[in-house]
Amino acid sequence: MPYALFPTAFGACGVAWNGVLLTAFQLPEATPLVMEKIGGAAPAAPWREAPPPTWVGDIIARVQRHFAGHPQDFAEAPLDWSRVSPFQCAVYRQAWAIKPGFKRSYGDIARELGLGPEGSRAVGVALGANPWPLLVPCHRVVSATGKMTGFSAPGGIRTKTRLLALEGAELLSE
């Protein structure tokens, strides 16, 4: 499966694709990126670094602009939805609806999906498995009180807070 690593103002990111759809995206890490890490289980074809096609290059350029302080909306990114369950897809589409500079709670998304009181936990689990963080903006989902919780991407809560601040979201401090 082809992939590309690329620099941003926050550090190196990675992206993988399968012809016309994105299969994985990796936020910047302190350690070097390994495609098996960003792409999950090994694909049928081996991982290989490759020059990105034009459409992937366009997404890379937008990610670089985003990290440089010019927030982007990736709601039209061509994602390989076959990598996720129908429930995850529903959660990710709700996250896609949150525009840069805004936040919603796990409970908000659970209610939107018609889930009961425990639904926010299921939403959090789905967001924790997001193969396209930033592109599917799971960092824009916060606790019911507005606190930064539940971010499993590299850098954890610090990265989540940095992304929200970069996008101009209102942040609460204790």
Helix content bin: 25-40%
CATH topology of the largest domain, which one? Arc Repressor Mutant, subunit A
The number of helices is: 6
Q: Strand portion, in percent?
A: 5-15%
Helix and strand string, N-terminal first?
Answer: EEEHEHHEHHEH
Largest sheet: 4 strands, mixed
Which CATH architecture of the largest domain?
Answer: Orthogonal Bundle
Task: Give the class from helix and strand content and strand pairing.
Answer: alpha/beta
Radius of gyration: 16 Å
CATH classification class of the largest domain: Mainly Alpha
Low-confidence stretches: none
Question: How many structural domains are formed by the residues?
Answer: 2
Strand order of the largest sheet: 3-2-1-4
Q: Can you walk through the features of this model?
A:
The chain has six helices and six strands. By secondary structure, the chain is an alpha/beta fold. The protein has two domains: 66 residues; 84 residues, Arc Repressor Mutant, subunit A. The strands form two sheets. A four-stranded mixed β-sheet has the order 3-2-1-4. Strand 2 and strand 3 form a beta hairpin. The radius of gyration is 16 Å and the shape is globular.
Break the fold down into its secondary structure elements and pairings.
Layout: E1 2-6, E2 13-17, E3 22-26, H1 35-39, E4 48-49, H2 54-67, H3 86-96, E5 104-105, H4 106-112, H5 119-128, E6 141-142, H6 156-166
